[in-house]
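Dissemination and training. As part of the outreach component of the grant, students in the summer workshop were shown how a complex can be specified as a set of sequence lines and then modelled as a single object. The example used during the hands-on session is reproduced here so that future cohorts can follow it. Participants entered these lines:
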Amino acid sequence: MRIGVLAAQGAFAEHIAILNKLEVEAPPVRLPSELKGVDGLIIPGGESTSISQLMLAYDLASKIRNLAKNGLPIFGTCAGMILLAKEILDSKVEPLGLMDIVVRRNAFGRQVDSFETELAIPVLGEKPFPGVFIRAPIIKQANSNVEILARLNNSTIVAARQGKLLAAAFHPELTSDLRFHKHFLNIVTEGSKFGL
Ligand code: GLN
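and obtained this result:
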């Protein structure tokens, strides 16, 4: 299996390290040609403004949009989640517009802009998942075709899935818990079984 990791800016090295731990080939993707032959793509956390500018500059945005429409599984974490959204509140960032979610950037404000909390994520099993939030976004609204995977105690949505698109407001790549990445790899192999 080959999972490309968008390496425009941000925490791509950490995703590559986790995928390598899971014995998955993880080429960094900076140019459209590097998307050739990937079975899935991870869009990491970082600054969504910079990542979106670089995606446009290197002609990656339209290529990724087309591949996603043809069934390419994509996992977006933090800024990556922002970029997957249909709509970003109060922001000039142009998202890829692939998931039926509305997100708010930097939703926790300056005072508590980073924190760690245990999250209940039933699809990953009973054990809570370590949620590392860094200037994190939240999902303000999700369409009925979106599966909600995790909420904070105050019911704010922080992880979701729509078809083969997976989004987390936090950073599973900064923990030693591999379950979120494994879940994504399952989504990728499910798809290939049906020849997608
Ligand atoms: N605050 C960043 C943004 O709006 C996201 C932070 C992150 O990816 N850790 O793009």
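The chain has one domain: 3-190. Students were then asked to discuss how this feature might be tested experimentally.
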